[in-house]
């Protein structure tokens, strides 16, 4: 059984698994204990350039596409929800405090993996927010404050 994970563990952003299949993600989630809220982020194998949030909800693995928005933001593809995040790290931070889509599950047990690539993070010196500022993309700066789009 996986041990309890603190908020600082989630802040380390080491739950990225690159390009793995949903079956491989299922195996990792279950190997890490299969507890409610166990999660990882991976590259989508079927939707190039996008990512997938894989997590346990009600004892079952769930996979939700994370769509890359115009190359500069990320949004979960779920019913009636269109929040835009400037980095995968900020998306995970949000869903560690709020339920994911229609479920009541929050992300609380990260599967140990790798850090995110710098170009998909809000925090860091070469992230989307810094690039948007230097390129004068004010529309993106306004949209990435986690307001509905």
TrEMBL record:
GO molecular function per UniProt: kinase activity; receptor tyrosine kinase binding; signaling adaptor activity
Record domain SH2: where: 15-111
Name this protein carries in UniProt: Tyrosine-protein kinase shark
InterPro entries per UniProt: SH2 (IPR000980), SH2_dom_sf (IPR036860), Tyrosine-phos_adapter (IPR051184)
Gene: shark
Keyword annotations of the record: Kinase, SH2 domain, Transferase
Pfam families membership: SH2 (PF00017)
Presence of keyword Kinase: yes
GO cellular component, as recorded: cytoplasm
Entries under PROSITE patterns matching the protein: SH2
SMART domains: SH2 (SM00252)
Leader sequence residues: none
Keyword Transferase: yes
Domain of life according to the entry: Eukaryota
Protein's organism: Portunus trituberculatus
Lineage: Eukaryota, Metazoa, Ecdysozoa, Arthropoda, Crustacea
GO biological process, one term: enzyme-linked receptor protein signaling pathway
